[in-house]
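Let's practice the habit of predicting before peeking. Look at the sequence and jot down your guess about where helices and strands might fall. Then scroll down.
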Amino acid sequence: MDHIAQVHAREGLDPTDAQRSAVVSEQFRRARLQAPVLAPNSPAPPEIHELREGLVAGIQIPKPGTAGVIVYDDLNQWKYNVKAVRGEGDPAVPGQNANDAYDHMHKVLAYYREKLGRNSLDNSGLNVIANVNYGVGFDNAFFDPAALLMVFGNGSNVVFRDLTADIDVAAHELTHGVTQFTSALNYTNDQSGALNESFSDMLGSAIDAWVNGKDADTHDWLIGDDIMAPKLTGEALRNMAEPGTAYDNPVMGRDPQPRDMSGYFQPADPHLMSGITNRWFYLVCREIGIDEGTLIMYQTLQNLWPTAKFKDAASVAAAQASILATNKKVSREAPQVVRAAARQQGIW
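Done guessing? Here is the structure:
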C-alpha cells in the first residue's frame, strides 16, 4: 500500500484510497503492538448480546460461549458495528459480502473445532463479530485485538476487490485472534513478529485447502489470490511455496519476501520475513501432508511465547512432532521432516 500510495501521489493532488488505506492500516498495526495478552483464564470480553449498538429487530444474537457469528454492515463508515444484518442461524441476506463473511467465519470455526479440537478463538466458544463495508475503498482486512472482531474493506479495485472474497483472508486474520489467546507472539519488526504473521498464513492456507478439498500437491499455496483486482488477475499477496514470486507489476512493485535466511534482515515488516517460515511449513506439508503439518504447527503456536524466534519455533515444532508421533497422531518421521525443512530454510 505504501508503494501504491507513492505511485498515486505522482498522479494527482487529492489523497487516494491507497493513501487512506495505508494510514488506517498503520493505526491498527500499532494497536496490535499493544494488544492485551488474552490467556485462556483471562476475563472474558463483553459478549455480543451486551453490545447494543447497531442491533436490529429479528437478528439472532448468539448466546455467550456458543461460537456463533454475527455480521454488521458498516455502511462505508469508518467505525464498527453500524448495522447488524445477519445473526447466528439467520438466512442469507441481499449483500453477498455479508454472506461470504458469515460463511467464512463459520468454516474457520469449523476447521478449528473439527480438525484441531479448538472451540473458537479463545477455546471457550467466543462468539465472532464480522464487519463488512468498512470505510471507503479500504484495501485491507484485519482482526482488531482490542475489540476482538473482524473487519473487511471493500477494496479499491486498484489492488483488491472486496476482501471477503477469499477464505484464506478471513482464516489468516482470525488466527491472529488464536495467537492472542495462546502464544501472544509480539507483533514487532523482528522474528517474533514474522512468526506472528507466518502462523496466520499457515493456518489460513490450511483452512483454504481443507475447504476446497486440496492436498499438499494440488493446493496452490497462495495467499490472497482471490481478492486481487481484475487488472491483477494471476497475482497474489504471498506465495508460501516460493516467497518472493507472488507479484511483480507496476501497481504493487515486486514481491520482496526472501526465500530463506540468506535474505533475512531486521528490522523488517512482519509480513516480509514471514516468507521464510511459510516455506518451512510448505516443505513439511509436502513430506507428511497438510493435516499433519498443520497439527504440528498449531501445537507449536500454543507452546511458544511472546519473544520466540525462528530457532525457538523449529525446536518446539520438532518436540511437538515427537510427542504427536509417540501418540500416533502424526507420522513417525515427522520430527526429522520438521528439522530437515527448518535446516533447508536456515533456521535450524
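How did you do? The longest strand covers residues 69-73.
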